[in-house]
Amino acid sequence: MKKFLLILILLIVACLAVGGFYYGKIKQQFVKVETVQIDPQLTVYLGGGGNSIVLISEDGSKALVVDTKMKKAAEKLRETVKASDITIVNTHAHFDHTGGNSLYPSAKIISGAYTAEQWNNESKKTSRYPDVVLKTGEEKVINVGSEIVHVRNMGRAHTWNDVIVYCEKRKLLVTGDLVFIDMHPALYAKSGASVASWIGVLDSLSKQYEIKILIPGHGKISDQSALATMRDYFVSIGDAIGKPDKQADLKKKYQDYFSLPCIFSFRNTTKFIEKERKSQ
Ligand SMILES: [Zn+2]
Fold it and tell me: From the CA of 158, how far away is ligand 1's center (Å)?
């Protein structure tokens, strides 16, 4: 009986330690917000859900908010936006990017052309349906002060519709979850994820835009090279399927990437690509 109790206690301690370890990792990635001032008009808010940018016109009257985070971080972000004329772009419908939309009741929301059902499912009803929806390949140009902002639906990749924001003068690209830095990507078939299409979208972005600053959906600020890194991640994992030695090497290569078992991990990406290939 004593031995059984001891094993039980050890098991509970181990579970708490593992739980604490992952809680720490989740907190770092999804709760903590880091502010990076790119210039007087443009601020990047990393973490607290998906990464966000806020671009303010020189006269302070107009603001563009790209992705609105979730929960407490969404409220903090909202407090920083003082302009009266606000446009929100949601790079995609996932709730960690749309969770703060309801805090901007008079803002105009732009996103991809999801069906109402897809929008509600993916955003977990955190946001009303967008006011402006862009179809695949469609682009909208907005002027925010002296900046010319291109908002374009790149089509299916991480979800059914993935929208990017490109600030022409700054050569700054906001990719949403088309790019994850130092972490395994979230791949959900029910969200419309397609790795084959995603690789094509990364190629298009590399060809279409000259990028000095790249803001990923999750992870730190990067540059043009992040597109090739993301592409290489998918292509190399796909190429290694059925080749255990190659797979072992890659697993090592990506061992420091942020992962959550069964949600985002090396195994998860491999399984997803395997399944996608079988269904093609
Ligand atoms: Zn996402």
Answer: 7
**Residues paired with residue 140 on neighbouring β-strands, in sequence order:** 151
Distance 212 CA to ligand 1 centre (A): 23
Examine residue 154 and state whether it is found in any structural domain, yes or no: yes
3-state SS, residue 151: strand
The CATH number linked to 212 is 3.60.15.10
Q: Which residues form the domain of 46?
A: 26-279
Is residue 86 in some structural domain? yes
Rounded to an integer, what distance in angstroms lies between the CA atom of residue 139 and that of residue 154? 9
Nearest to 184 by CA among 219, 150, 137, 149: 219
Identify residue 91 by its one-letter amino acid code. T
CA of 176 to the centre of ligand 1 (A): 7
What would the pLDDT profile of 59-75 be if each residue is shown by its tens digit? 999 999 999 999 999 99
User: Is 226 among the domain residues?
Assistant: yes
Q: How far is the CA of 47 from the centre of ligand 1 (A)?
A: 13
* The pLDDT value given to residue 261: 87
Cα(134)–Cα(139) distance, rounded to whole angstroms? 7
What is the value of pTM for the model shown? Answer: 0.91
Distance 123 CA to ligand 1 centre (A): 10
How many domains does the chain contain in total? 1
